[in-house]
Design goal:
single chain, alpha+beta, three-stranded mixed β-sheet, 1 helix, 17% helix
């Protein structure tokens, strides 16, 4: 009887340690964003479009550009992916590099938007360029 009791006392802590190791918290997961750039009708993906992600901070009545920025170029599927260490809200600026309508700063050569990137999730946002 005593041997069974001591065996149980030995097995229970080991089982609890194994259970805790398998259910312990995972570290922080990155925040991912996938931006898709489409034409103005939303029917054709735009490849080769520069996508600039940035965050502006409003403080004490002024707006300032933060250090959090990322740049990428869309692939043949019109998508570009970003990964951030922490959750964030980012502004999106997509610019067509070969815009023929009055230069690259023309309203038809750009698209903008905003996306919220949450920890451990992939946020998807589609923006449309009129060009």
């Amino acid at each position: 009887m005593k041997k069974k009791f001591y065996a149980i006392l030995l097995i229970i802590p080991i089982a609890m340690m194994l259970f805790q190791m398998n259910t312990s918290c995972n570290g922080p997961q990155p925040s991912k964003c996938v931006i898709t750039v489409m034409d103005s009708a939303g029917t054709r993906a735009r490849a080769g479009v520069k996508v600039h992600m940035y965050a502006n901070v409003t403080y004490n009545g002024g707006t300032y550009s933060s250090d959090l920025k990322a740049d990428g170029v869309t692939g043949s599927d019109g998508k570009v992916a970003f990964s951030f260490k922490n959750p964030c809200v980012m502004d999106i600026l997509a610019t067509v590099s070969n815009c023929t309508v009055s230069g690259p700063n023309h309203v038809y050569c750009t698209a903008s938007g905003i996306v919220k990137c949450e920890e451990g999730k992939t946020a998807e946002k589609t923006v449309r360029v009129d060009h």
